Amino acid sequence: MYGYKQHDTRNPFTGRHRMLALRLALLVLLSCALMILDHRHQQLDRLHDVLSVLVTPVRWAVDAPTRAVLWSRENLAARQHLITRNRQLREQNLRIQGDLQRLQALQAENERLRELLQSARQVDQQVMISEILAVDMNPYRHQVILNRGSLDAVYPGQALIDAHGVLGQVTHTGPLQSTALLITDPNHSIPVEINRNGLRTIAQGTGNTSRLDLPYLPSNADVRPGDLLVSSALAGRFPRGYPVGIVTEVEVIPGERFARVTARPAARIDRSREVLMVTRRPEPGGNDDRSTDSPATEPAAPATLPGEMQP
Amino acid sequence: MMPVHRRGLPVIWVSLVIALALTLVPLPDWARALWPAWVTLAVIYWSLATPQSFGLIQAWLAGLLLDAASAGVLGQHALAMVLMAWVAQRFHLQIRPFPVWQQALVLVPLLAAYEFVLYWLSGLMGLTGPVWAWPAALTGALLWPLTFTLLRLVRQRFSVA
């Protein structure tokens, strides 16, 4: 090529091509090393932090138009609209206050009963409001970027809820922003129990924002469409008792040991912007191990099931 | 004073950051599958146009930034990106004389390979869900003339050598 023979030492390109190939090989090896360190061993916290700070302004810039639209909607709303909205919210607030009074009485009663039974008290929970940035990422992973990071005491494994139910959990924290995995991500599993009878199982994400799968319920399990699934604190990661989903379909296939059960997430997975991050006091004997990136391996149950059940 | 061939670097990096922002723009799901890999297009352009100032290491860094921005595993996009940059730099003398639409044709298999590498690495890491996003390669190639023209204007305006 270029009028020279390939092995001609006078060819000025051969040396350049060799250098290029050498650099390529080194960078490919470096990438592989990074991937192995990051994926298998999660040892790149510092690098993650640095890169996260670098991309923070880009994320803000991408989020800016959405923020501007919301801001203008708030600021340019008609007076009449605001008055109606205000009245609605006041009524809603009154109703919720009423519910809350009953809740406080119930909580006190619950605590008394727990003391009688000498069982552990429920952990105190604190919530912090956070916003999801309108930033798109890998289309096949259900992840979101939140505008709070480790400087706001966000920690990996922190649970994320919206006004309707459990949304997901934090996987990585940067100083100013953090990444959360949603419960509908195909690699996410959350331990749940059926509110009606306390039956415990696992809800897996499907990659579809309106569907969860419950693959580990035996054919004879007492589960019906309409059953509410609430989070169980089994994996020690999600707080107990928040709605996760509502069973939509139960299909019993003759000859199969497990029923095909699907549910609809209770949280508004693709519509929430403001979310709550639930902070828990670490329990004794704690679960303060670093979050693994694939929480699918976290809950104990799937690992103990027969191998044939693994997807 | 920077050496002459380094003076264009800030301009190149600004274009890469803009490409990164374009990648992150929120879109509905159907459009997501067609959204081209903007950073890759920019990296390929600079690798073809100024291989002496835009090296493999910088392509790799751009990929690493993309990994961080997309909250993925570090190294995944970096690896795919450095492969593309290598192809572009190795064959820049052959590809550059082509008219833009023929360059776009060359880009189809190149971008498809880029998406395939990403898909394959996701599979290796045991992620379920990703599919080979080859439609993005077609839209990327379709948008190549636009990218090429814009970036050439930028290159001439700021005389990036």
Description:
The complex is a heterodimer of chains A (311) and B (161). Chain A is an alpha+beta fold. Chain A has three domains: 16-72; 77-121; 129-299, Rod shape-determining protein MreC, domain 1 (Thrombin, subunit H), CATH 2.40.10. Chain A has helices at residues 12-41, 45-75, 79-117, 301-304; strands spanning 125-131, 143-146, 159-161, 166-173, 178-182, 189-194, 200-205, 212-214, 228-231, 243-251, 260-265, 274-280. Chain A has a six-stranded antiparallel sheet, with no helix packed on it. A six-stranded antiparallel β-barrel of chain A has the order 6-7-8-11-10-9. In chain A, strand 6 and strand 7 form a beta hairpin. Chain A is globular. The termini of chain A are far apart. The model of chain A is unreliable at 1-5 and 283-311 (pLDDT under 50). With 161 residues, chain B is mostly helical. Chain B has a single domain (4-152), classed as Orthogonal Bundle (Arp2/3 complex 21 kDa subunit ARPC3). Chain B contains nine helices and no strands. Chain B has helices at 9-24, 29-32, 38-49, 56-69, 76-90, 92-95, 100-124, 134-142, 144-157. The radius of gyration of chain B is 15 Å and the shape is globular. The mean pLDDT of chain B is 89. The chains are: A alpha+beta (311), B mainly alpha (161). At the A-B interface, helix 1 and helix 2 of A face helix 1, helix 4 and helix 5 of B.
